[in-house]
Each structure stands twice: as C-alpha cells, then as structure tokens.
Amino acid sequence: MIWFFNKKKKEEQPSEVLTEQAADNAAPDNAIDDTVAADGTPTEAAAEEVALAAAPQEMPAPPDAAAVTAQTSAPLMEKPDTKQGWFARLKSGLSLSSGKLAGGIADIFTKRKLDQSALDELEELLITADLGPATAAKLTAAIAKNRFDKEVTGEEIRTALADEIEKILTPVEKPLFTIDAKPFVILMVGVNGTGKTTTIGKLGQQFTREGKKVMLAAGDTFRAAAVAQLKVWGERIGCPVMAKDEGADAAALAYEALDRAEAEGADILMMDTAGRLQNKANLMEELSKIVRVIRKKNAAAPHAIVLVLDATVGQNAHSQLELFKEMVAITGLIVTKLDGTAKGGVLVSLAERFQMPVHAIGIGEGIDDLRPFAAADYARAIVGLDAASD
Ligand SMILES: Nc1nc2c(ncn2[C@@H]2O[C@H](COP(=O)(O)OP(=O)(O)OP(=O)(O)O)[C@@H](O)[C@H]2O)c(=O)[nH]1
Ligand SMILES: [Mg+2]
Description:
The chain is an alpha/beta fold. The protein folds into 2 domains: about 5-75 and about 175-375, 3-Layer(aba) Sandwich (Rossmann fold), CATH 3.40.50.300; about 95-170, SRP54, nucleotide-binding domain (Four Helix Bundle (Hemerythrin (Met), subunit A), Up-down Bundle). Helix content is about 45%, strand content about 10%. It has an 8-stranded mixed β-sheet, with helices on both faces. The protein has a two-stranded antiparallel ribbon with strand order 1-2. It binds guanosine-5'-triphosphate and magnesium ion.
C-alpha cells in the first residue's frame, strides 16, 4: 500500500507544488459568489445550501456517549493487503455504480452497431451514472472513434470505457504524502457528515499500524460530540488527541497541537475541523484563521488540506469543492461512501473538471475500507471488469 512519501517519486511529485499551495492559504479578499451552483450555473446561494448554512438551532441534538461510540465502532478489519483482495472489495464496494453502468451497457449493446442512437443512449447512461454531461460527451466521443458504425459487444464497450476513464483518472492519482516533513500536518475539511472524523480515525489507525507516530487535534470545537468522537478514535488507535472545550478557538488549538506534535516528535498531525458553523462566512474565517495560525508556527504547514467529499451527494460534490476551494487552498480530495451509492461516476467528473489530486477513497465503514486511490483499479471496477492482469 502506498501512503507514504516515496523518495523515488520525488521528481514526479515536486515538493514545490505543495509549498506553493500552502503559501497561498490565506482566504481570498473577494467574497464567495453565493450564486454559483454545482455545475457552474447561477442559482440562488446554491453552494450555501450544501448544509453549511444550518443555524445552530436547526442542528440535531448532540448524540450521547453511546451514540458517539456506536458511530466509531466500525469493525476493525485487518484484511491482507494483496492486490486481488483489495480489488475484490473495491469491486464489491462499487457494485451499485458498476451494476448501473454494466447493466445499462448490456441493454444498449445487444447485437448492435455503434450508431448515433446507440451513442446517444450511452451518453445518457453515463450522465445518469453521475459522470456529468461534459465527461459523458468526452467519453462517448472517444469510444466512437474508430468504432463508429461497427458491430460492437457490451464487453468491448466496457473495456473501452474503462480505458478512457483511466486516462482521466491517472493524472489525479496522487499520494497523500508528497514531501518528507515531520510532523506532516494534514487539515481535514468538508461539509458536515462527509466522513472527516471517520477518515481521520481510519487513516490514524493505518498509519500507526505502519509504525508512524500519529497525533490528532479535535478542531471541530463547534460540537462537543465531535470532540468526543475523535477522542474515541484516539483511544482506539492509542494516540494522543489534542482537544479543548466546546466553543474554544479552533485556531489556538491548532497552534498548540502543532507545538506539541513538534515537541513530542510526531510524524503526522491530523486535524479535524467543523463541517458547519453559523454560516459560510464564519466557516471561511475559521478555516483561514486555522491555516494562518499554523503557518505562523511552520510556514510549510499545513502540508495537506484535504477536502472530504461524500460520493452519495453526486454532482453536489462539485459545488462543495468550489465552495471550499474559495475558503482554503485545498491540496487534494478523499471521496467517501462509494459503497453506498450508484453515483461513483462523480469521482470521474470531478477529476475531469478540477484535476485535483485524489488521495484516497472510502468504500465502507471498516478501517481498511479506506485506501489510496488507484486510477486503473477504479476505472475497471466501476464498469464491473476484473483487475487488469499486469
Ligand atoms: N458506508 C460508508 N460510510 C462511511 C464512509 N466514510 C464515513 N462513513 C460514515 O459516515 C458517517 C459520518 O462520518 P463522520 O466522520 O462523522 O463525518 P464528519 O464529516 O466528521 O461529520 P461532521 O463532524 O458532522 O462534520 C459515519 O457514520 C461514518 O461511519 C464510507 O466510506 N462508507
Ligand atoms: Mg466530524
């Protein structure tokens, strides 16, 4: 499994890229355009609708301790790391998405020529599978090339589709750790409920298992339950969790956490953040302040600002990415909950539109259901093909 900085890859993944991004972390002066929606079309405050605007009184009551424990009590799966083992789980995790695509392709291409109406149906299928209109058009055109008006089989189309999807995904397959920093500071951001805290827990467990010294910081000081949830993960992992009381200044916590991580020689500091505050302006101010304060202490940190996106929201993930890109300099994505949705195509449309690194994907609630993103595997699994034999 490739999570960590690989010195051989240094030339491919120049540290300057990250440093440049980190150097530009201050929030922009210009206000967020409230009127930009998922697909870039103007709609009224569409982005804010993505659950950021929820006023505190509208928020659900904090879960009790038992609920918090239940939320973090996903099975501790210790599955072998063989390529086939992981691919089988990826394929089964993506089965809702691949079922839709493979089923649709089989219906369209039963003893049929690849004529214009077949292409139109294919394009429509790709759009309904959340690949988005632009990506669907691009993929359909690529598949039509050299095949137009010829007899094709569903299997042939699926293979061609996987090849084209892989071309889109390969440039965004980037490891989370691109430079050799200690502590490597990761800020996890995203709308509430996307899986930030769980992802930190899963990563923390995996990194610890690989011998890394991990520290967590409970930067979602907005909700007491969020702090409790991260503490449960810390106990499970056996790593320290820096936390303050509900309502405490998250930026001050970030500063102290970095201070302690440096003093104690932690390899990795992962910081949770609030998914929502009273409104978008507050969240923007909070995130940019956290980054500013961290940079005062270490100009190169945070080394990664990872946006966690929930695949089940489909194309709304686009508006979440646009929104957070305006708040802080996002360096990469982790896409979760791909197991519970037929909308796995959204990852392809995100890659095509934003070319933002995808570090990892979540295909379940178990610790090992979060893995580094592999373009070729994803491309084949999402159309229901087996792993490429290499
Ligand atoms: N099926 C599935 N569930 C997931 C995955 N990742 C996270 N979850 C679940 O999603 C739910 C929300 O996850 P959290 O980690 O609490 O989300 P969050 O972003 O921290 O939410 P807030 O703290 O409210 O902002 C939990 O029940 C997780 O177990 C995944 O890849 N697959
Ligand atoms: Mg959380």
